[in-house]
Amino acid sequence: MSAELQRISRLEPYLDRPEPAPTLLKMLVGVQLAGFREDAGYSQEQAARALGFSPAKLSRIEAGKGRRPPTERDVRALLELYGTEPYQVDVLLKILRRAGEPGWWQRYDKRLMPEWFDRLVGLQEAAATIRTFEIQYVPGLLQTADYARAVVERGLPNVPPVEVQRRVELRMRRSGLLLREDAPQLWAVIDESVLLRVLGSPEVMREQLKHLVEMAKRPNVTLQVVPLDVTNASAPAIPITYLRFSGLDLPDVVYLEHIRSANFLEDRDETEEYRLALDRLADEALPPRETITLLRETLEQRYPATS
């Protein structure tokens, strides 16, 4: 079997996934189309011009961006231009059709799920490894419902209670991915100040820290804290989420969130800088076992149980 056929045959297991994974599948379609284009000797601009596409449109298709996947008509036209073999066309079009099935998060309205956030949730659902650094809050995937509610109420003080509840429900649904049989590996580094900043109430914080202790015991969760007394820690000024996918030539993705938007970085030189920054933070943070000890000490000293 040729290298191209082996590459496309590795996609077939994705046709049998019980849950849709539209973000992952759009990326897989885009990566394969870019590979076919390069094998056929076309530049992105040449291929776009040959089919009357704008270069920006073809770039979006190959990057797997957008709330919806590309149309089957456009993908067929690209595959025909590249002289793709029938078996490869068949598999890729099946993947494309599955990419059109909505993920559970896409059933929420766009107020709660703008396009940039839709993409983040889809990437997390598809990731093999999620690395994150937080300087203000407990990472979203590790929050309790009451802590998440306090975060939402602090960040969006004017939204009605029904929307607050919907946002909390969405966050709890997202955190469920850590409990799946095929759960990703989560490696979270947080600043110690996160443990000391009271959100909601001391009781909310106590339950949140107890939850962190329990989650840190899971085989797919690594939790580290950067102590306050590490005065020269190389902590960036913003939270970072770094996503890695299993094989299939998908690029690593760095997610940087702003108040009402976000940046997604996929260039290898850029993502490598953030990976190295996370590595340095992990070196400066307490090891996982000592992190659990610190969590327990903070619980007893700062958030003692009330009688």
Topology summary:
Layout lengths: L2 H7 L12 H18 L4 H8 L3 H9 L8 H10 L4 H14 L15 H12 L2 E6 L10 H11 L5 H15 L9 E7 L1 H4 L5 H15 L4 E6 L13 E5 L8 E5 L4 E4 L2 H17 L3 H15 L5
Parallel strand pairs: 1-2, 2-3
Antiparallel strand pairs: 1-4, 4-5, 5-6
Helix pairs in contact: 1-6, 2-4, 2-6, 3-4, 5-6, 8-9, 11-13
Verbal overview:
- Helices cover 50% and strands 11% of the residues.
- With 307 residues, it is α/β, with parallel strands linked by helices.
- Strands 3-2-1-4-5-6 form a 6-stranded mixed beta sheet, sandwiched between helices.
- Helix 3 crosses helix 4, helix 5 packs antiparallel against helix 6 and helix 8 packs across helix 9.
- The longest helix has 18 residues.
- The chain starts with a helix and ends in a 5-residue tail after the last helix.
- The model has no long low-confidence stretch (mean pLDDT 90).
